[in-house]
């Protein structure tokens, strides 16, 4: 009969236990020195080696020829415990024997001396499942056991074990295994079983194991059975019903691009291919989590990434989505996934989720609004705040004067030497008001850093007012003024303006409230800003 790989490769000695060196070294030292406790409590997540270490400890205390704390595995006691035929080493499942009567029967039998080995060992798995009455019945014998008795308790939920039990046991915490440790063990098992497996498939299985070696080995067993002994990355995706890193990244890119049709098309293809909807949303959550880590801790967070997307995909998605948007997408996806237990049509629920993610304006709740505001804030901070390029302006009517033409400059008495990079003399602003500021802003923006570039957009928060030979750059508020009033920026604007006007001008950055002719009617300014920046209030 075929034996599952996780049973076949269960550790037989402390040396075989993966990733729990602090625990196994301590137990070995106690065995070598004879300083054993009468009760041990092993705690940790599933698949980390608690029950395996309990069985190894039970063999080691009864082994006839221990080797540096490890059981020999060949003596009669070791063979009997491995085969499960030793009546003095009992493994009890507390989930199905959680009543007080079961514990009383155990307590009555425990006083008898072992008949085959030196120690009578009780391994109580999932001990947190015992009732309060059962814990109380167990308490006295754990506190003062006979010399031949050893208790090993194992649990995944330490907080449910009473403090009276905890205080009478030596506690050992089993940590989650790293991806590297799980991958190394899977590679060894694949070699022993003659399974041809790709390194990328091993990394994926190790990540999917989530710190539990037993889960990783079970996944390897499943994928090897599905593929007939040769495991590839695509084979793992197909066997486990996963979308895969490329398709998950494409789906999130469609969300970032607001392409509802594209997102629904990708989801429909994945659904038709038999992909599990819950697993697909889980992959989206994992990818959003990785992108959030990259945004908040770009250097130190590299070791915390799950590896669901490669570097190029992660970089593209990180640029396309703000941290607020990622948090909102992650929250909405988790809520939808959690509701699958109550929802009979998971496909409709997932499609509605994608529609909401692609069209956030359909929702007016606080999280979606916060995500859209975060998008605008990130664009402002990076300087990418300009709207679409303004169309060429036609000559204004005679009664329409541009803002820099409020106080027309007098004609100079004598021609002045143009700036070094000056071009042939152009008409003054009053002659061509529509071309002066758009052209000046474009030239200035080309030479500025991204942080400052957005402030000099033609429709940005700065308005020029030309008064004689002085160009006043009127900023909307103190923040804008502090960001642009720098010597190097003033020099840049001075040179570019001289090149366009054909004469030298002085440049000063001031507040708009201090300059006559730079003020806007508040309502007109609000309407114009909404028309020019309508695209940035939609998540892209």
Written description of the protein model:
The longest helix is centred in the middle third of the chain and has 20 residues. Helix 5 links the parallel strand 2 and strand 3. This protein has 23 helices and ten strands. It folds into four domains: 170 residues, Rossmann fold (3-Layer(aba) Sandwich), CATH 3.40.50.300; 62 residues, Helicase, Ruva Protein, domain 3 (Orthogonal Bundle), CATH 1.10.8; 113 residues, no CATH class; 133 residues, DnaA, N-terminal domain (GMP Synthetase, Chain A, domain 3). Strands 2-3-4-1-5 form a five-stranded parallel β-sheet, covered by helices on one side. With 540 residues, the chain is of the alpha/beta class.
Strand order of the largest sheet: 2-3-4-1-5
DSSP helix fraction: 40-55%
Number of strands: 10
Number of helices: 23
Q: Mind summarizing the main beta sheet? A: 5 strands, parallel
Can you tell me the residue ranges where pLDDT is under 50 for at least 5 consecutive residues?
385-409, 414-434
- Please give the alpha-carbon distance between the first and last residues: 56 Å
Structural class assignment: alpha/beta
CATH architecture of the largest domain: 3-Layer(aba) Sandwich
- State Rg: 36 Å
Give the overall pLDDT as a whole number: 78
Morphology call: elongated
CATH topology of the largest domain, which one?
Rossmann fold
Task: Give the CATH class of the largest domain.
Answer: Alpha Beta
As for the number of domains, it is 4
Q: How would you classify the quaternary structure? A: single chain
CATH homolog superfamily of the largest domain: P-loop containing nucleotide triphosphate hydrolases
Strand content: 5-15%
């Amino acid at each position: 009969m075929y034996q599952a790989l996780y049973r076949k490769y269960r550790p037989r000695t402390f040396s075989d236990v993966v990733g729990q060196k602090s625990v196994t070294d301590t137990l070995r030292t106690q065995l070598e020195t004879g300083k054993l406790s009468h009760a041990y409590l092993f705690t940790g997540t599933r698949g980390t080696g608690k029950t395996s270490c309990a069985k190894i400890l039970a063999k080691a205390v009864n082994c006839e020829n221990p080797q540096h704390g490890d059981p020999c595995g060949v003596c009669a006691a070791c063979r009997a415990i491995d085969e499960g035929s030793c009546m003095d080493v009992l493994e009890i499942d507390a989930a199905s024997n959680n009543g007080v009567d079961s514990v009383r029967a155990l307590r009555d039998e425990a006083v008898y001396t072992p008949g085959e080995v030196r120690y009578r060992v009780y391994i109580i798995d999932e001990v947190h499942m015992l009732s309060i009455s059962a814990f109380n019945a167990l308490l006295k014998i754990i506190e003062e056991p006979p010399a031949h008795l050893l208790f090993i308790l194992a649990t995944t939920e330490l907080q449910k074990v009473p403090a009276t039990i905890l205080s009478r046991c030596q506690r050992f915490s089993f940590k989650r295994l790293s991806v590297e440790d799980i991958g190394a063990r899977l590679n060894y098992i694949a070699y022993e079983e003659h399974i041809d497996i790709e390194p990328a498939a091993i990394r994926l299985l190790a990540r999917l194991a989530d710190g539990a070696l037993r889960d990783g080995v079970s996944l390897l067993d499943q994928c090897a059975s599905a593929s007939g002994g040769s495991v590839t990355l695509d084979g793992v995706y197909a066997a486990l019903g996963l979308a895969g890193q490329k398709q998950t990244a494409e789906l999130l890119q469609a969300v970032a691009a607001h392409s509802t049709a594209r997102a629904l098309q990708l989801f429909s293809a994945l659904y038709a291919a038999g992909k599990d909807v819950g697993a697909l949303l889980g992959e989206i959550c994992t990818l959003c989590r990785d992108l959030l880590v990259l945004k908040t801790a770009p250097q130190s967070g590299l070791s915390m990434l799950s590896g669901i997307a490669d570097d190029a995909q992660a970089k593209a998605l990180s640029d396309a989505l703000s941290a607020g948007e990622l948090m909102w997408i992650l929250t909405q996806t988790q809520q939808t996934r959690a509701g699958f237990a109550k929802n009979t049509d998971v496909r409709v629920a997932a499609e509605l989720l994608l529609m909401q993610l692609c069209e956030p304006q359909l929702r007016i709740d606080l999280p979606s609004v916060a995500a859209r505001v975060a998008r605008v804030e990130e664009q402002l901070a990076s300087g990418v705040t300009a709207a679409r390029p303004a169309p060429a302006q036609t000559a204004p009517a005679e009664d329409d004067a541009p803002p820099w033409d409020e106080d027309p400059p007098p004609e100079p008495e004598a021609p002045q030497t143009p700036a070094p990079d000056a071009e042939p003399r152009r008409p003054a602003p009053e002659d061509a008001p529509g071309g002066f500021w758009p052209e000046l802003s474009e030239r200035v923006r080309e030479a500025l850093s991204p942080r400052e570039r957005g402030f000099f957009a033609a429709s940005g928060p700065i308005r020029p007012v030309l008064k004689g030979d002085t160009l006043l750059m009127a900023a909307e508020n103190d923040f804008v003024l502090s960001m642009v009033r720098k010597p190097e920026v003033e020099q840049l604007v001075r040179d570019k303006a001289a090149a366009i006007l054909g004469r030298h001008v002085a440049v000063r950055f001031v507040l708009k409230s201090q300059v006559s002719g730079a003020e806007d009617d508040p309502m007109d300014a609000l309407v114009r800003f909404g028309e020019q920046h309508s695209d940035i209030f939609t998540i892209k």
